[in-house]
Amino acid sequence: MELTTQQVLALAPDEASAAAGKKLAVMRHWKNLGRTSAALWGECQGSALYQVRVDLGSFAYGCTCPSRKLPCKHVLGLLLLAAGTPKEVPTAEPPQWIAEWLAKRAARAEKKQQGAERPTQSADLAAQAKRAAARERRVEEGLDCLDIWLADLVRGGLAGLETRPRSFWEDVARRLVDAQAPALAARVRRLAELPGCSQDWPRQLLHQLGRVALLSHAYRRLDQLDQPLQQDVRQLLGWTFQQDQLLSQGAEVVEDQWYILGGIVEEEGRLRSQRTWLLGKQTGRAALVWQFAVGTQPFSQRFPPAAIAAGKLVFWPGAVPQRAAFVGEFALRGAMQELPAYATIDPFLARVAGELARNPWLDRFLAVLEGVVVPQRPGPWRLCDATSETIPLAGEAHWRLLALSGGHPVTLAGEWDGERLCPLGAWAEGRYQPL
Amino acid sequence: MHRQAMDELLHAAMLGTSRVEARLPQPSDELALWAEEAAAGSPQRRLLLEAGARCAYGMAGYAPEPAVPPAAPAPSETLAACPHHLVELFESLLASDVPQEVLIEALQAMAQRGWRVPTRCLPEVLSIKEAKVRAALRPVLGQRGLWLAGFREDWQWAVVSGEAPPQEVERIWNEGSLPERCLVLRHLRAVHPQQALTWLREAWPREKADARHALLRSLETGLAREDEPFLEQALADRSKDVRSLASQLLAQLPESRHARWLWSMAEPMVRYVPHAQSQQAHQQGGHARPAQPAEAAALLELTLPARFDPTWAEQGLIDAPPAGVSKREYWFWQFVRRIPLARWVEHCGAAPAQLAAAAPSASEGAPVLLAAWSEAAVSQQAAEWYGPLWDAWLACVGVEQASLWGQACNKLILTASGSGKLPQLVERLSGLLGWDPEGTLFCHALEPMAAPWPADVSRAVFAQIVDRLQRVNPKRHWEAYPWLAALKLAARRIAPSCLDEAAVWANAIDASASLTQQPAFLTFCQVIQLRREVARNFAAHSLEKSSHGQEQSDSK
Q: Does residue B150 belong to the interface with chain A, where contact is any CB pair within 8 Å?
């Protein structure tokens, strides 16, 4: 598909690559440029002659330079050249090396597809069952310890927690990791941030501690819960699914054209995580794609906001399926033409309530609302809807949003966490503008 | 009720359930009853379970708050929007490594085409601090930009351009920040000079030194005899900068006591001898150089003051010179620059051209004399002196340059930009390259020439730079440095019509030449490319209107 310069620059792993790519987007460095509907290629003269190619359908790229950054500056330069001066890149017959590369990719994609659909080997089920039972036991023991710790905490009082060092929480988290409940460990580790973070921290901390207690309570009565909620509780504790496992266990697969609304990147130690929200065009389903990367490595998939990704999403099982991942490759198609939204805040909050009723541990929800952005001085910015109700926005300054809305109601997409809305993008001037 | 229950739970949790005061309340609703049951006797567990349940309930039952009145929406736009495919190009111009001349060019082109800045760029654009960019931004902000600017203090520059209403003026004078007050005083001075003086006089005793200095500067406009008493008062100020400024202002009032005193001190310092006589004439007076051979040329004899009289400090002169300037030259310079040039013409009985021509060969102190006269010429806007002063300066080259001279030179070249004499200046500079092969002078002179350079100047300068770069001896690569710096400068400043030639030259350079590895060259290519894109997209098609039917391609 056609990418715009802005989207290409958004793909760069860091500032330096973007700047280097811009410097390379000049004709004098390139030879043998060409494109077809499926691919884009060229040869770049750097300290040697590098062959650069991009698969336009699935957005994969390759370059023979030794750089470890992906995409490297040559790929960025080629894309910028194609985006900025399309006339310089004529449609041509793909040379030998391009044709080979495309053929290899097609073969690999097919093999992956086949592998995903093949059922898992049923070898040594007994050993698997024993491991599963051992894990459940360990988790129960871990939760017993956690319950004792929580009770001690409440008995002693929350007032003194502001002065506790981080290791206070780290120890508990580590014990949970040993008990094979890593997701719960991460949740406890995040609690360390709360004491002292705002005026309201005791209430927030008590809420989160209560949720953790509720989770441990739920796990003890797992069989009394519905199947979907059981899946949720397991995942919240730390059971994970690999994508091919999901497919083999018959998880829900939805095919649609997905609006890419935007992503939020968070850092936890050396691990970076990106969550991208997608909205289905026909089905209206909200989907959350999580990606992880270590250190400065780029994320494996790119989701340029305001584009449409056509493909199949497989959802992680649960009472309210949110997390999803693409099955195979997805194709980027054009730009969003519209953004369906809730006209007022009330129906959205009603939906949130409904989802919480099915899974009380949900942390975040996709919100697409119409309303006006109002700056308060001092205090949080608020979104005000047509019925004059407001919800606070997260973050300090939303000047770009204010500029785009100009005081008129705009449709805003964002992530709601129960207290604040974090804006992802807005529909203004006839197109979706990421923020 | 939920909130109250939550508060009670919180109270108990903060104190800790081991305390007697922290007793959990009786279960009051379903949630509490359930928690009590599920806790099976442990009050801590009950507290936690109830808190967790209430958290989910609280989230599910979130009630939005009632509205605060939103700001009035922005009025609809009068200017056309920037085409969407150019928004990214515009955003790339806002990057920090792009020279601001390129941005200014794009903004001016947009203003001509009746476009406004893309809305998503408004916050970034309003946060720009440089005055020149702000001036170029004002016509293209559009209604949305002006509306947005009203929300923040540091964006007010976009809105406050005209005069404020009278009550506003007084309020700003009493309560505003120093830059605002200076602006207001200046506006008032243009309209009601006396009232501005009265305000300043009233506020004078309370102000700090730098405020006094800044506010005093606003008296420059509309200076008249009635200001003399106040300026005399300022002349006795504690701060030496204020005294110096007051002295400069008084010097502009020829009838004032101070101006007369200055003249009486400065008059004997410069003596003009129309035709250099024999050796006898030279042995009189100060420190003279041997006469010019053969021709009967005019001569200026300078007498630098020997010492700094303490009473001079009370008259606004500064004793200690800045770094790199000798004391006597500094004192001499302070006197001479304050004197109106017409006085010298009268006193020496010669035209500006003759005086300036005699200056380079003056006795010791020639550069300082030229510096002082240049300062005076620029501040008094005596245009008839500019040409002769340049010629003098160019002839004076080779004499040690005083640092005072550097500033004056820059100001002079700036005036050249405005008056259309730039091509001649460049020609003369090029001529000098014969004996200044390193070209530091040439490159140094390029800096103050305001962008964009006229087309002929651009071509001449560019040709020189290209020529010099090609002739650089690879073994003496350091000689190329001033020319490389000039190359980078040229990229930002040459006329838009010369961009294509520059690009052609850059492309034609052999990829293996060492020049292509220089960062300056790469920057040059980048900036030229960017400017070409700006020209192609933003400023194009003015030819469409002029020639009907004929489509002249202005790029490629």
A: no
Residue B64 to residue A389, Cβ atoms within 8 A = yes
Residue spans per domain, chain A: 5-117, 122-237, 250-335, 345-434
Three-class SS of residue B101? helix
Residues 101-130 of B with CB under 8 A from A: 119-120, 122-123
- CA-to-CA separations, A318 to A25, A312, B464, in angstroms, rounded: 47, 18, 74
Q: Per residue in B454-484, is it b (16+ CB within 10 Å) or e — as a string?
A: beebbbbbbebbbebbeebeeeeeebbbbbb
What CA–CA distance (Å, rounded) separates B300 from B357? 10
**At A228, which helix (H) or strand (E)?**
helix A227-237
CB atoms within 10 A of CB B17: 20
Q: Give the model confidence (pLDDT) of B341-400 as tens digits.
A: 888 888 888 888 888 877 777 767 777 788 888 888 878 877 788 777 777 776 665 444
**Are the beta carbons of A402 and B151 separated by less than 8 Å?**
yes
Q: Is the pLDDT of residue A278 over 90?
A: yes
CA distance A292 to B464: 55
Question: What is the reported pLDDT for A115?
Answer: 65
How many angstroms separate the CA atoms of B270 and B276, rounded? 15
Q: What is the DSSP letter of B252?
A: T
> Which residues of chain B have a CB within 8 Å of the CB of A159?
14-16
Type of residue found at A395: G
Q: What is the pLDDT of residues B414-436, one digit of tens each?
A: 777 666 677 777 777 776 666 56
- Whole-number Å distance between alpha carbons of B265 and B337: 13
- Which CA distances in Å does B337 have to B247, B383, B503? 11, 16, 45
Instruction: Flag whether pLDDT at B286 surpasses 60.
Output: no
Q: What is the Cα–Cα distance from A8 to A81, expressed in whole angstroms?
A: 10
Buried b (16+ CB within 10 A) or exposed e, B406-417: eebbbbbbebbb
d(CA B490, CA B445): 12
> Is the pLDDT assigned to residue B291 strictly greater than 50?
no
Q: Does A31 touch chain B (CB under 8 A)?
A: no
Cross-chain residue pair A157–B15, CB shorter than 8 Å: yes
Q: Could you say which architecture CATH assigns to the domain A345-434?
A: Beta Barrel (2.40)
**Close Cβ partners of B544 (under 8 Å, ≥ 6 residues apart):** B551
Cα A21 from Cα A75, distance rounded (Å): 8
pLDDT of B520 strictly over 80? yes
- CB within 8 A of B101, min separation 6: which ones? B451, B452, B492, B493
Task: Identify the pLDDT of residue B353.
Answer: 81
Determine the residue of chain B that is closest to A362 in CA distance: B56
pLDDT beyond 80 at A95? yes
The pTM assigned to this predicted structure is 0.71
Cα-based distances in Å from B328 to A60, B240, B276, B305, B319: 73, 19, 25, 6, 10
Q: Region B263-290: what's the mean pLDDT? A: 62
The answer to whether B436 touches B478, Cβ cutoff 8 Å, is no
A56-76 burial, b for 16+ CB within 10 Å, e for fewer? bbbbbbbbebeeebbbbbbbb
Q: Which of B473, B488, B476, B475 is CA-nearest to residue B518?
A: B488
- Nearest of B140, B88, B78 to residue B109 by alpha carbon: B140
Residue B16: is its pLDDT beyond 60? Answer: yes
Q: Kindly report, residue by residue over B488-502, the tens digit of the pLDDT.
A: 888 888 888 888 888
> Residue A19 has what pLDDT?
83
Q: How far apart are CA A188 and CA A185, in angstroms?
A: 5
Phi-psi region of A180 (alpha: psi -120 to 50; beta: other; left: phi over 0): left
Cα B480 from Cα B488, distance rounded (Å): 12
Whether B283 has a pLDDT exceeding 60, the answer reads no
B48 with A382: Cβ contact below 8 A:
no
Select from A45, A46, A80 the least CA-distant residue to A61: A80
